[in-house]
Amino acid sequence: MSSRLSLGLSLGLLLLAAGAQAADFDLNSGAVHFSAPSEWPVIMQMTEGNPQVVAFQVKDPAAEGTEESSRVSVTSRKLADSQAFQSMVNGALEKAKQQTGYEQDKDASDTSSLRYYGTEGKARYHYREQFWFKNGIGVALRCARPVLDKTSKTWVANFEAGCDAISASLAK
Questions:
Q1: What are phi and psi for residue 15, nearest 5 degrees?
Q2: Which of 3, 52, 56, 67 could serve as 40's disulfide partner, Cβ 3.0–4.6 Å?
């Protein structure tokens, strides 16, 4: 069994074991399809024009009473070619590096995504960004969460599992 298939099955089993169900989403008239945890409420959905986006809020009990918010977005953009896609990825990397408090996540073992820390307002955030180019469409997955002392390791693991599940469905 391939490692990608094995990873996908493991993520699916993890979500099922946690009792989570997935909700399906389409962008670009179905050219981009992905699944997200159904308990993540959609806070923005734009499925016409260029770019298109679906954004989710992921509630962290530790952030209650603060202005901090964990969120996940999938953005798609029709592009002329792979060179335009590379420009999109390079632009995201430059934007990340210009963020206040930018620091590459040195503990990240996943080399297929850009993982870094930055500051939003008064809080330090952890970001994860991944990119795909399929059939003339550039797709970006962005997972952002505040780094809070009271956030449980279980919540972080569930957040990452949800991002992993979206990533796996986008990679199909």
A1: -65, -40
A2: 56
Q: Decide: 132 and 170 in contact? Cβ < 8 Å.
A: yes
Domain containing residue 104: 3-171
Where is 158: in which H helix or E strand? helix 153-171
Distances (CA, A) of 11 to 23, 86, 138, 140, 166: 15, 29, 24, 20, 10
The reported pLDDT for the residue numbered 132 is 97
Contact criterion met (CB below 8 Å) for 51 and 62: no
pTM: 0.86
Looking up residue 134, the CATH number of its domain turns out to be: 3.40.1000
pLDDT band at 124 (very low <50, low <70, confident <90, very high): very high
Q: What are the DSSP E strand ranges found in 21-107?
A: 22-27, 32-37, 42-46, 52-58, 70-78, 103-104
